[in-house]
Amino acid sequence: MNAIVTVDIPLEEVEEALTAYLEGLFPGVPVIMGLENDEPMPPPQPGFLLVQPLMQDRLNMPVDTFVQGGNIAPTTSSISQGIEVNVQIDAYGRTAGTWASIVSTTFEDAYGFAALAPNCEPLYCNTGRLMPLTNEELQYEKRWCIEAALMYTPTVTVAQQYAEALTLYFKDVNVLFPR
């Protein structure tokens, strides 16, 4: 049986929603998702935001739903699970501390819920901490780190096997496997 697996909310859409939320707060400020190889960091002025996914964690056990195709047995199974995604948002530049305050203030507010909908929602966010970075010229750059958590509930759909007919044969186990 060739299984076709689909997911209704891929993690990339959650990352896109978070990027759009941050770009909405800071128009014109570069928002970078993840660390890219062989790519230099943008100049520290006027600043930028770097979002690094840290981990995913299960919030509940998977829930199965079987979808019937017409008058036959179920043909697909949909499996949903709440997932927490933890991210680190690094704000660089002269106004990085202010940006950290803006993110922490709006993230768990109705503004954050509306900006991240419909694919994910905010769970919690700290207010940030100053974590200076030493650059290649051995100069300190202002960096504020914020840890935030979002929740999304992807549904994975897989093909469901079923039997159209069943024949039972009874065998005496003691005869088949004598001691």
Description:
This protein is α+β, with helices and mostly antiparallel strands and 179 residues long. The protein has a single domain, classed as STM4215-like (2-Layer Sandwich). Helices cover 21% and strands 36% of the residues. The chain is built from 4 helices and 12 strands. The strands form 3 sheets. Strands 2, 3, 6, 7, 8 and 11 form a 6-stranded mixed beta sheet that branches. A hairpin with a 5-residue loop joins strand 4 and strand 5. The longest helix is centred in the N-terminal third of the chain and has 15 residues. The protein is elongated, with a radius of gyration of 25 Å.
Structural class estimated from helices and strands: alpha+beta
Helix fraction bin: 10-25%
Number of strands: 12
Describe the largest sheet.
Answer: 6 strands, mixed
Number of helices, where a helix is a run of at least 4 consecutive DSSP H or I residues: 4
CATH topology: STM4215-like
Count of discrete structural domains: 1
Query: What is the chain-wise order of helices and strands?
Result: EHEEEEEHHEEEEEEH
**End-to-end span in angstroms?**
39 Å
User: What would you report as the Rg, rounded to the nearest angstrom?
Assistant: 25 Å
> What top-tier CATH class fits best?
Alpha Beta
Overall spatial form: elongated
CATH architecture: 2-Layer Sandwich
